[in-house]
Specification:
Layout: H1 5-27, E1 41-42, E2 45-46, E3 53-54, E4 62-63, E5 70-74, H2 76-81, H3 87-91, E6 97-100, E7 106-111, E8 114-115, E9 118-121, E10 133-134, E11 142-149, H4 153-156, E12 163-169, E13 177-185, E14 189-199, E15 206-217, E16 225-238, E17 243-257, E18 264-265, E19 288-303, E20 309-329, E21 341-366, E22 369-390, E23 396-397, E24 418-439, E25 442-459, E26 462-463, E27 466-480, E28 485-496, E29 511-524, E30 529-550, E31 553-573, E32 578-591, E33 603-613, E34 619-628, E35 631-634, E36 638-641, E37 644-654, E38 659-666, E39 681-682, E40 689-697
Parallel strand pairs: 9-12
Antiparallel strand pairs: 1-2, 3-4, 5-11, 6-7, 7-8, 7-10, 11-12, 13-14, 13-40, 14-15, 15-16, 16-17, 17-19, 18-39, 19-20, 20-21, 21-22, 21-23, 22-24, 24-25, 25-26, 25-27, 27-28, 28-29, 29-30, 30-31, 31-32, 32-33, 33-34, 34-37, 35-36, 37-38, 38-40
């Protein structure tokens, strides 16, 4: 594996040779389309030539080829084609991203060997609470999703060298657009969507958009049921030709019943594997997990005549949850099926975030060349309050394993809630970056992020004070070898404040480290096909790793961790009708004391393709493949999930000029596999499911 920055560059050159040879062979047989019909999006794949741009890495508006990091974008057409109505389904299609569904309503994400904690909306956000996605986040509010793999300290200030996920909002449109959708699927999955947008006055200077979605679905899992409502309203006003004010509000109200807290004990007490049906759950019909996620924002965007732009955004985010949960523990007896016990608690909580972000960006002249500069700052305040109402009985008996789903686990009594946590975090940061055009073939990006983080409060018996400062530099370079191929490299510092606690119940210090990336980016078939190859190396000191238990509390230690690996990705179109997206990731994890986190797959492959027949009422057929290598964990004995692949299929057809039908078959081969081995418990992923969606465009 790669062990030094010099080796990174050498490996990047090797990747260049491989990709150039492969594309040269492909160009002999693949047609090249006219430049006049090149579009930014083709059937769900963002065509990533010079016209597709992102500011998610540095805050500078750059094409993906100019960006010295790996970026994947999933657009609205991909979301609709493959029925990606939840963020979990969407991120499962992204190269190098793993979705760890440890429970029904809590999900972790990781990439390049580390947890993904930074999720943004339009480039603004804070780390997820406890690094976890609570509930099922709907995609109906977003036009596209940008995933920057590797460290992204420029735009986040904190976080792991894993990835940053940026959700790009749907915005009010200049012309009237409206659509509605109905969907029905396996296990009585009903879904309704409506989206109306357009000008509100004759001049078109005031525009609005209303979005709504409701999903009500059962499950293959015993007891589980979800009802989710999503609302959003946005208003944009061109106060002057140069000044636009946009404001919006969004609510996602997720109500789940029969939820998992923890999952299935996987081994009998003699170490043999328990053979569960895929519907097995340790939950009960009296459990619930309600999550209400609200966001309001106001954005001012002023455009100067000289190309400069000033943007300021104020965001208020409120997150409420209320959960009554049942956790199963213990390894059952192989003869009787008895021995599993449960504990339960009621957990209300409330989190609030106030964020103000402002930046200026634009061109400047230096040494006879034009460059780009961004300068900005952000201040935020986050508060979190949690309550616990733990059941009097901490050894609730379960029936024998074979009777789960038929015999109800009794609901215990609760003595009353106490406030378990009250924390306040204040984060201030200043950032600046420049995109230097050193020469026609050479562009350099350099910048820094300076931040100050201060915390106070307590959490479950421990004080949580924190006062930390850090300046993180960023530098990257892109060199165009020819009109089709570029080499790139980047470096950034890592600063990741941590909430985990050690054996003495004290907060661990922030993890520090550095991340390198180098590779090749290339565009072919008149910018239709985008090929990338990257090698990366990340090192973190004092990264929080679970090392044991202290009663019911997980104990962490700060250990040094190193990850090296490489990625290959192809995205775009092979013809006017045929689109492809494929990515391979391979990595090596090295940690102290053997803490190598074997639940992380070392090899993953993601691929989607779609082919459209315009002469057959735009019939589109497509498929998606997800494959990962074997993973394991240790309970009272080792547990392994063997390597597996999951295939999804889709077909879409225009029934009329305004109505389109789409059929999706997920897990078409009906593969049986565990959702995650991140913990010592898990549950089975969904079997084959079918859904039919009708979209009506007004």
């Amino acid at each position: 594996m790669i062990s030094s920055p010099r080796a990174l560059l050498m490996a990047g050159a090797a990747l260049l040779a491989l990709s150039s040879a492969a594309v040269a062979q492909a160009e002999e047989t693949a047609p090249v389309a006219d430049a006049g019909v090149v579009e930014n999006q083709v059937d769900g794949v963002v065509v990533t030539g010079a016209r597709t741009r992102t500011s998610a890495v540095t805050g500078l508006d750059m094409s993906l080829r100019e960006t010295p990091q790996s970026v994947t974008i999933l657009d609205q057409a991909r979301i609709r084609n493959f029925g990606l109505t939840s963020v979990n389904d969407l991120l499962a299609q992204v190269t190098g991203v793993n979705v760890e569904k440890v429970e029904t309503d809590r999900t972790y994400y990781n990439s390049r060997g580390f947890d993904i904690t930074n999720f943004q909306v339009d480039g603004i956000g804070l780390p997820l609470i406890w690094g976890i996605q609570f509930g099922d986040l709907d995609t109906v509010l977003f036009d596209r999703v940008e995933v920057v793999r590797g460290a992204n300290s420029m735009m986040t200030g904190t976080g792991n060298p894993s990835a940053t996920v940026n959700y790009v909002r749907k915005r009010p449109t200049d012309t009237f657009k409206a659509n509605a959708a109905l969907q029905y699927g396996s296990w009585d999955d009903y879904r309704l969507e409506a989206d109306v947008s357009g000008p509100l006055n004759a001049a078109g200077t005031v525009r609005g958009r209303l979005i709504y979605a409701n999903e009500d679905r059962g499950s293959y899992l015993d007891y589980y049921h979800v009802n989710r409502n999503v609302y959003s309203g946005l208003l944009a006003w061109d106060v002057t030709p140069k000044l636009t004010v946009t404001a919006g509000y969004a609510l996602q109200d997720n109500r789940s019943r029969g939820v998992l807290w923890g999952a299935l004990p996987l081994l009998y007490e003699d170490g043999a594997k328990v053979d569960y049906p895929r519907s097995a759950s340790t939950s009960a019909d009296w459990t619930y997990w309600d999550v209400k996620d609200q966001t309001a924002f106001t954005e001012l965007d002023y455009r100067f005549d000289n190309g400069w732009e000033l943007k300021a955004t104020g965001t208020y985010k409120r997150f409420n949850e209320n959960a009554k949960l049942l956790y199963a523990y213990g390894n059952p007896d192989p003869d009787t099926g008895l021995g599993v016990k449960g504990m339960s608690g009621v957990y209300p909580s409330k989190y609030e975030n106030f964020i103000l972000d402002a930046y200026a960006s634009g061109p400047f002249q230096l040494f006879g060349r034009t460059h780009q500069l961004v300068v900005g700052g952000q201040t935020s305040k986050s508060t979190g309050k949690e309550w616990e109402n733990f059941a009097l009985d901490s050894e609730i008996p379960y029936p024998a394993i074979g009777l789960w789903g038929a015999q109800r686990v009794a609901e215990p009594a609760y003595p009353g809630a106490y406030q378990a946590s009250d924390q306040t975090d204040r984060l201030s940061r200043f950032y600046a970056a420049a995109h230097f055009s050193v020469a026609d073939p050479l562009k350099i990006v350099a910048g820094f992020n300076a931040l100050k983080l201060k915390s106070k409060g307590y959490s479950y018996g421990a004080d949580t004070p924190r006062d930390e400062k850090k300046v993180s530099p960023y530098v990257g370079a892109v060199y165009d070898l020819n009109p089709n191929v570029s080499l790139y490299a980047s470096y950034t510092d890592i600063f990741n404040p941590q909430s985990e606690r050690d054996i003495n119940n004290r907060n661990l210090p922030a993890a520090h480290g550095k991340a390198y990336e180098a590779g090749v980016k290339s565009e072919w078939f008149d910018h239709r096909l985008y090929l990338t190859g990257a090698v990366f190396q990340s090192e973190q000191d004092d990264l929080a790793i679970a090392v044991g238990m202290d009663g019911s509390r997980t104990v962490y230690a700060g250990l040094d961790t190193k990850v090296t690996g490489y990625e290959l990705e192809a995205t775009g179109a092979l013809s006017d009708q045929w689109t492809v997206s494929a990515g391979w990731t391979q990595l090596k994890v090295e940690g102290e004391d053997g803490q190598n986190r074997e639940y992380l797959p070392r090899k993953t492959f993601k691929a989607t393709t779609a082919y459209t027949f315009p002469e057959l009422r735009n019939l589109t057929i497509g498929g998606a493949l997800r494959w990962q290598s074997a993973v394991s964990m240790v309970d009272i004995a080792p547990v392994e999930q063997k390597a597996y692949g999951v295939v999804d299929l889709m077909a879409g057809l225009d029934l009329t000029d305004k109505v389109r039908a789409t059929l999706n078959v997920k897990n078409a081969a009906d593969k049986t596999y565990l959702t995650s081995l991140m913990w010592t418990q898990s549950y089975y992923a969904a079997p084959r499911s079918v859904s039919l969606r009708l979209d009506y465009s007004f």
